[in-house]
Design a protein that fits this description.
The chain is of the alpha+beta class. Helix content is 23%, strand content 28%. It contains 19 helices and 47 strands. Strands 20, 21, 24, 25, 26, 27, 30, 31, 32 and 33 form a ten-stranded mixed beta sheet that branches. It has a seven-stranded antiparallel beta sheet with strand order 10-22-19-11-16-13-14. Strands 34-39-40-41-47-43-44 form a seven-stranded antiparallel beta sheet. Helix 4 packs parallel to helix 6 (549-567), helix 11 runs antiparallel to helix 12 and helix 17 (912-926) crosses helix 19 (952-961). The protein is globular. It starts with a strand and ends with a helix.
């Protein structure tokens, strides 16, 4: 069926978002078409008012000739607070087809202006309840509904973390609201749909309020950072009636306060819940609150910092049952969740009142099989539940989360006879990002590595991109975020997540352009190369993945500010050799007792200076800042020349003999083309000399395999990936890791641990190898000249002797992209999917024109969707439009490698199957214009021009004495 359909309508990256703050929201859609090569010729968007009347739209683009189907900014009449807008889309394609209208979707605006707040910040009266007391506060109020309700929304936030209840019902499945932002500048407001929770005969509204990031002790080294000394809540309920009238219920001094069962809650340390202290029905109407305490208005917290929710909320996204329960050699009862996870454990128990059950969370067992808490440092990760004793009761923490695989259980009834597995459930918590990436290959160890990368991201993307989710840190380290962001955005939809975090980074940036080590900033340090560069690299990477020019524009001054900061340092304008830098953090070539690798910090800082300057130049070009682009291009060239003068020898070698120094010089394009091959060869030799092991840290590792593969040493890169001995990505896999480790040897070969002071078993930075796996092994990449995978680049680099297949998929804003391949003795099949309204450039390595099939048909430009075919150095370049494709061909290079154990053709001929394959390859070589293959084989000794005259009968004579490379 030849149809054209519009689907997957999104506003601000989301489906039907509630309570947004963008005054010109960006709209996107996908096109479904069974016809290859479908491209959009034009579109029409119609936006209706809150009643969904498309006959009286607030914006109608009419037919708009454009191939853009993502990030279309609304340009209609000014949008109103608290108003829902409906929209639908139709498209036209280049085949002359017109789609039907899409199903209608909607977005709803949040509370946009501070002047609309009638509610006030409140907290318990400090004369009645100590604001420093540990128990969570309960706040409540009764209210009446004054007629037939059309709709009801609550707009709420907190200085702390909170949960909202209406008539005894929790209003949403979101947790740890309002999240962690740079509170002095930005505090998110959540919007809740509560229409169906209201009653005609009296209503109750309740808020539970705890410390969260706002008031918990955050940071380390004994610091106890607090944004404020007092928790507070702000909520405003708007009830719209069917007759058009409205009533408002807001927080004010008429509310009542108490404490309840949550006796303690902290981000690092866990939670204590005494179920005997529950107030049954406390958030319902007519609850007897005579003994509750008054509240007071908190006038010292501003409304000016409020912004509608930007990030996706934190939710429970998966539930895991423990796979085992056992008693350790030390006598502890321990649960094994089977996966290092982040979240909480829900326990169900039937026990007498006052029974205390304690859960202590940890990531690993020590070499003796005992649960290991040493790497938590000061963090406790302890949950205590005290039963109320009136039948089965269930509990999971409300205001804390833990990083763990193992749970030590104390006090569970009957645990001396073994823990019942069905009494415990692990609830996985993180920012609820839509999964968008997949990768798999023929090596199960690499597939486990990919799983570890994804679980590491899930565990550390809990509202901010944290460095670890278990110890007393859990901070938004800028360096970790920038090295991992491309891997992150491949695997999960991270548009809202990084939009929110980058707005915080900009808010935390210093007037001189300096950037803190962590965002939000609770530790005070700032301005290290590769860390501060997150201000540039992260918005640019978001733009590359999603084409979000608005975010790029919002961050542009921040990006320029960082470059200006670097430029102002020291006496040498084009070299950054001053200040503190983390360098190649945790590199294995570091001096003893140092975390900073052997690569000179000035080399790293200057390399990033050049790299970030280039990115800001490119951003300036995208945004139309032509004069900035010219000046930044000149600066970029000057920094490159200064790098060469300072860090390269006169003969064109890198002066510092480290892997990382060579990697950065190559990947950041800091070496002249005349010496690039030499630098790459030196890097490859450094790897070989180290027995195919890396020595890189946080800076060099993310780019290592790119530097090799892009320089013709892909086989070395694959050997590094598959290196199972220390140090390497598969070493941790061989030790049973289910997330990425902070150190290559967090668990040493003898089972002992790296130092307790910094040893996270869930630390995503080294998971940045995923970016290379997806782009180079599976070959799924983008053409960087056009963002958001509008133009796709498919170029798999086959695993030679190591991998027989690999595949990846990514759901872009345009739709699902797939790239996969299989190799069997040199026979190659490459399969791909290109979504409608995009095109792809496909490079088939080792292929030759005339010897490729698409499906079962010889490839040529008459096939639907095939736009052009040409020879390139690597093989064959094919341009295709949207659709599914399957290319098959033979590759003599792969055949050579897979049979490299045979020194002579006669050895191959003695293997009947090998001889048949060899003849097949020889026929392919002479029946087409394959001179690029001829040059790579020993056939060239016969003379390239003689090959066209070789007959099939001559092959048998030829193979008798042909020597394989």
């Amino acid at each position: 069926m030849d149809s054209l359909k519009v689907s997957t309508l999104r506003c601000e990256y989301r489906t039907n978002p509630l309570g947004i703050g963008a005054r010109n929201p960006q709209l996107s859609w996908q096109i479904e078409s069974e016809r290859r090569g479908t491209m959009q010729r034009g579109y029409q968007i119609v936006v209706a008012n809150e009643w969904g009347d498309f006959n009286a739209p607030v914006w109608d683009t009419g037919f708009t000739e454009s191939d853009q189907s993502i990030q279309i900014a609304y340009e209609g009449e000014e949008l109103k607070s608290r108003t829902r807008y409906w929209y639908k889309v139709k498209v036209w394609d280049h085949f002359g087809r017109e789609s039907a209208w899409s199903d209608a979707a909607w977005w709803e605006m949040g509370l946009l202006d501070q002047g609309e707040w009638q509610a006030a910040w409140i907290s318990p009266d400090r004369n009645e309840i100590d604001p420093q007391s540990e128990p969570a506060f309960l706040l409540r109020k009764d209210f009446d509904v004054l007629g037939d309700v059309q709709s009801a929304r609550i707009y709420a936030t907190a200085a702390g973390v909170y949960e909202l209840y209406v008539n005894g019902e929790r209003v949403s499945d979101e947790w740890l609201a309002p999240g962690w932002t740079s509170y002095p500048s930005r505090l998110q407001v959540q919007t809740y749909e509560v229409t169906d929770l209201l009653c005609k005969d009296g209503n109750g509204l309740g808020i539970v309020l705890a410390d969260g990031w706002y008031k918990s002790g955050m940071g380390f080294e004994g610091k106890n950072f607090k944004y404020g000394e007092q928790r507070a809540a702000l909520a405003q309920l708007h009830i719209t009636y069917k007759d058009g009238t409205e009533s408002i219920v807001g927080t004010d001094a008429s509310w009542k306060a108490s404490t309840g069962p949550i006796q303690y809650a902290a981000i690092y340390h866990g939670e204590t819940y005494d179920a005997r202290l529950e107030h049954a029905g406390w958030s319902s109407a007519n609850f007897q609150d005579d003994e509750w305490k008054p509240t007071q208005v908190c006038s010292d917290i501003s409304l000016d910092v409020l912004v509608p929710q930007e990030n996706a909320p934190t939710r429970v996204t998966e539930k895991l049952r423990p796979i085992a329960a056992f008693v350790t050699p030390a006598g502890d009862n321990v649960l094994d969740m089977g996966q290092n996870m982040v979240g909480r454990v829900r326990v169900t128990v039937n026990a007498p009142a006052g029974t205390r059950i304690v859960l202590k969370h940890a990531e690993v067992l020590d070499k003796d099989g005992n649960i290991y808490f040493g790497n938590l440092r000061a963090a406790k990760q302890v949950v205590s539940y005290i039963t109320k004793g009136n039948g089965p009761e269930s509990y999971a923490p409300y205001f804390s989360f833990m990083g763990f695989r193992y749970v030590k259980v104390e006090g569970f009834p009957g645990q001396e006879n073994g823990l019942p597995l069905d009494a415990f459930v692990g609830e996985v918590m993180h920012t609820d990002m839509e999964p968008t990436g997949e990768f798999a290959c023929s090596d199960a160890r690499v597939n486990q590595l990919q799983s570890n990368i994804r679980w590491g991201q899930r565990g550390n993307f809990l509202d901010v991109p944290t460095d670890c989710p278990q110890r007393d840190e859990r901070l938004g380290w800028t360096g970790d975020a920038q090295v991992f962001i491309s891997t992150a955005l491949f695997n999960y939809q991270g548009g809202p997540f990084f939009t929110k975090w980058l707005h915080d980074l900009k808010a935390e940036q210093k007037p001189n352009g300096g950037v803190p080590f962590v965002v939000p900033n609770v530790v005070g340090g700032e301005n290290s190369a590769a860390w501060g560069d997150a201000a540039v690299i992260c918005p640019w990477t978001v733009y590359q993945y999603y084409g979000d020019k608005r975010l790029l524009a919002e961050q542009y001054e921040s990006m320029k500010g960082w470059i200006a900061y670097i430029r102002s340092q020291g006496e040498q304008e084009f070299i950054w050799n001053t200040g503190f830098h983390f360098g190649d953090w945790l590199a294995l070539d570091a001096k003893e007792n140092s975390y900073i690798g052997a690569t000179p910090t000035a080399l790293i800082a200057t390399a990033y200076y050049a790299y970030s300057t280039r990115i800001v130049r490119d951003a300036a070009q995208v945004l139309g800042h032509d004069e900035d682009a010219r000046e930044l291009n000149e600066l970029h060239q000057n920094v490159i020349q200064a790098f060469r003068d300072e860090f390269m020898t006169k003969t064109g070698r890198i002066a510092s003999p480290t892997q990382t120094a060579h990697i950065l010089a190559l990947v950041f394009d800091l070496v002249d083309d005349s010496v690039r091959a030499r630098v790459a060869k030196d890097l490859n030799q450094l790897i070989i000399d180290n027995d195919y092991h890396l020595t890189t840290g946080f800076v060099g590792t993310p780019y290592l395999c790119f530097a090799l593969s892009d320089s013709g040493y892909h086989e070395t890169a694959v050997k590094l990936l598959l290196q199972e001995s220390y140090p390497g990505w598969l070493y941790s896999v061989s030790k049973g890791a289910t997330t990425i480790w902070e150190h290559w040897d967090s668990i040493k070969a003898d089972g002992s641990f790296w130092s307790d002071d910094m040893n996270s078993f869930n630390h995503y930075a080294y998971g940045a190898i995923g970016d290379w796996m997806y782009r180079k092994i599976a070959g799924l990449d983008m053409d960087v000249s056009v963002p958001a995978f509008k133009k796709i680049h498919i170029e798999p680099l086959f695993g030679l002797n190591s991998l027989s297949y690999a595949k990846a998929a990514h759901t872009s804003l345009y739709g699902r992209i797939e790239s996969g391949w299989q190799v069997d003795k040199g026979d190659i099949r490459v399969q791909l999917r290109v979504p409608a309204n995009t095109s792809a450039q496909v490079i088939l390595t080792g292929a030759a024109i005339g010897a490729i099939k698409e499906g079962e048909i010889e490839l040529d430009t008459t096939l639907p969707g095939v736009l052009a075919i040409s020879e390139v150095d690597q093989g064959v370049r094919i341009l295709v439009g949207s659709g599914d494709y399957s290319f098959s061909y033979t590759n003599s290079d792969l055949f050579r490698v897979q049979y490299n154990e045979h020194s002579r053709i006669q050895d191959v001929l003695e293997d009947e199957a090998a001889a048949a394959v060899l003849k097949k390859h020889m026929l392919a070589l002479i029946e087409g214009p394959f001179l690029n293959f001829v040059r790579k084989s020993t056939i060239k000794q016969l003379g390239e021009n003689t090959m066209t005259g070789v007959t099939r009968q001559q092959i048998d004579a030829l193979v008798a004495d042909l020597i394989l490379l």
